[in-house]
Design a protein that fits this description.
The structure holds 2 protein chains of 2 kinds. Chain A contains 5 helices and 5 strands; from the N terminus they run ββαβββαααα. By secondary structure, chain A is an alpha+beta fold. Chain A has 2 domains: about 80 residues, Beta-grasp domain (Ubiquitin-like (UB roll)), CATH 3.10.20.30; about 60 residues, DNA polymerase, domain 1 (Orthogonal Bundle). Chain A has a 5-stranded mixed beta sheet with strand order 2-1-5-3-4, with helices on one face. In chain A, helix 2 crosses helix 5. The longest helix of chain A has 14 residues. By secondary structure, chain B is α+β, with helices and mostly antiparallel strands. Helix content of chain B is about 30%, strand content about 25%. In chain B, the strands form 4 sheets. Chain B has a 5-stranded antiparallel beta sheet. In chain B, strands 11-12-13-14 form a 4-stranded antiparallel beta sheet. A 3-stranded parallel beta sheet of chain B has the order 1-3-2, with helices on one face. In chain B, a hairpin with a 5-residue loop joins strand 6 and strand 7. In chain B, helix 10 crosses helix 11. Classes of the chains: A alpha+beta, B alpha+beta.
Chain lengths: ~160, ~290
């Protein structure tokens, strides 16, 4: 069992194999943003509350400010950059665009990741289920109504929430 | 925030993890990290070695034994608890509390073992484990193993009976007796202002047996006098309110950003009453 302050890691990032050397203390969010130039995930609160840094880790949403980069070793990570990879917006992204579900936009990549994950698990959520699914993502512009409408629209449902 | 320099290792077995935890007095087990990473960011603890136990299969099991006892690995996440078929029945409070823990991202990483070992007064599992009469199974160096009743596990503010160099391996929860249900009520102001868990057995619309644990205190606290007063009480709001009126007597809540101690003392009887009523009416949230 190796014990070290630096590790060589290999993982799959947005469909591609990545190998890197990371200090043990490096947070996943810093690794993604500063080392790999993936600036879609944001640092909002840096305390695990706001969800702006949300990415998929082995298919499940996690907050990348609450994990070490070395823990990505062997995992599959997807960031918001994995969506619209071919230039075509996903239904969730399109719905955010059409429903004006962003104001300053800082929370948007995290919101889109959580919404995408939610719809994968539950293709036709109620407004309450959408709100529960987005509970880990804060919008400080407080534009939640349009966000919930966008997610409902992406699910093929309109709502007056 | 950038963490202080630290070493890391990822053992393949619980034995290796215990060995690593004993290699330095400042080694800490890293499970889901949903509390510990923030502790490290604030540099609130001196840690020189992180022992990553988040992938240990030995800590991942949920097993229902023949006598109905449930055994939960310390590394089981809230999401895994919430989704487990084995928790669909009795005591379903565990799955429901897990499903309501913080948010989806935290539930995907955070573990029941981390929740109870971090022992933050506002954590949701400590009072539930005490109320359900759970037993904590702790392993140490050279194959040492200790079973600690939940009631003796929480020893103070952010402190448990787990000693340096030990690791919580699993938690067993006994099956509830027939006619028994769990009530779990919290007052969500900020993280949580007050919380009560009741385990109540009813007979002919009367409370035959009751256990009441108050949370959001430095340690989850049983209220034996209130439990005694509840026996023989009719399952009505007035009767239960009278029996639980003393639920905050003698307890010393904390004042923090969410609520003052005075406010907490005032609302403890309210959540206690609601938890008992919810349990007496078949559980679990009121």
């Amino acid at each position: 069992m190796d014990r070290s302050d630096t590790f060589d890691i290999e993982f799959t990032l947005n469909g591609e194999a990545v190998a890197a050397t990371v200090p043990a203390r490096r947070l996943l969010i810093h690794f993604l943003r500063d080392d790999l130039d993936l600036t879609g995930p944001k640092i909002g609160c840096d305390t695990g509350h706001c969800g702006a840094c949300t990415v998929l880790y082995n298919g499940r949403t996690i907050k990348s400010c609450m994990m070490l980069a070395v823990q990505a070793d062997g995992a599959t990570i997807e960031t918001v950059e994995a969506l619209a990879a071919d230039g075509e917006m996903t239904p969730v992204q399109q719905a955010f665009h059409e429903h004006h579900a962003l104001q300053c936009g800082y929370c948007t990549s995290g919101m889109v990741m959580s919404a995408t994950y939610l719809l994968e698990k539950n293709p036709s959520p109620s407004p309450e289920e959408i709100r529960e699914g987005l509970r880990g993502n804060l919008c400080r512009c407080t534009g939640y109504v349009n966000i919930v409408e966008a997610v409902a629209a992406a699910a093929g449902k309109e709502t007056s929430a | 925030m950038i963490l202080a320099p630290v070493e890391y290792c990822r053992p393949d077995t619980v034995d290796e993890a215990v060995e690593a935890l004993n290699s330095s007095p400042d080694a800490r087990a890293l499970a889901g990290g949903q509390s510990l990473i923030n502790v490290l960011k604030m540099r609130a603890a001196a840690v020189d070695l992180l022992v990553d136990i988040s992938r240990l299969e030995e800590l991942k099991g949920i097993v229902r034994h023949d006598d109905g006892t449930l055994e939960i690995g310390a590394g089981v996440t809230y999401a895994e608890l919430a989704e487990s078929d084995l928790l669909g029945g009795d005591p379903r409070a565990i799955a429901e509390v897990a499903a309501d823990t913080v948010d989806p991202q935290v539930r995907h990483r955070g573990t029941i073992g981390g929740n109870v070992c971090h022992a933050d007064p506002i954590n949701n599992f400590p009072p539930l484990m005490v109320a359900l009469g759970a037993t904590m199974h702790v392993v140490g160096p050279d194959g040492a193993a200790r079973d600690i009743p939940a009631e003796e596990f929480f020893t103070g503010f952010f402190t448990t009976a787990v000693e340096d160099g030990e690791l919580l391996k699993s938690i067993t929860v006994p099956a509830l007796a027939d006619g028994t249900a769990v009530g779990y009520v919290d007052l969500e102001i900020g993280e949580a202002a007050a919380r009560a868990v009741a385990v109540v057995r009813t007979e002919d619309d009367q409370i035959a047996e009751a256990k009441l644990v108050i949370g959001c205190l430095p340690v989850p606290t049983r209220r034996p006098e209130v439990e005694a007063a509840l026996v023989g009480t009719a399952v009505t709001e007035a009767a239960v309110a009278e029996a639980t009126a003393a639920a905050a007597d003698g307890v010393e809540p904390l004042s923090d950003a969410d609520a003052t101690a005075e406010y907490r003392k005032a609302v403890i009887p309210v959540v206690a009453k609601r938890a008992v009523l919810a349990a007496a009416k078949g559980g679990h949230r009121g």
